[in-house]
Amino acid sequence: MERRRYGSRRQRKKQRTWLKKCKEYIRQLVAFLFSNVGIIGLVVGYTIAGSFIFMTIEGRHVQKMKLEVLGNRSLYAQKLWNITMQLNAKASTNVLHSGTPKLGIC
What we know:
106 residues; mainly alpha; 80% helix; 0% strand; transmembrane helix; membrane
């Protein structure tokens, strides 16, 4: 006794409704995301998104710190220049020992 087929596999795929197609695509997407490749992709995406969020949150603070560092650099450069001008340039060891307490470093 031979079974009767009403259509080939292609015909059955064409007869699927839009909802079934959408459900099948979502199932395939979820299966892909939970595979190793999908997990790696999610981790990379999460890392990139986190870096952009971090830069947005901390961006203002970084700008303030840069300005503060530039101000301090100029201040200490001016102090060192004044100390150097006051002391004899030939006695470099005296400049080092007498300059650090005035700067407040040591």
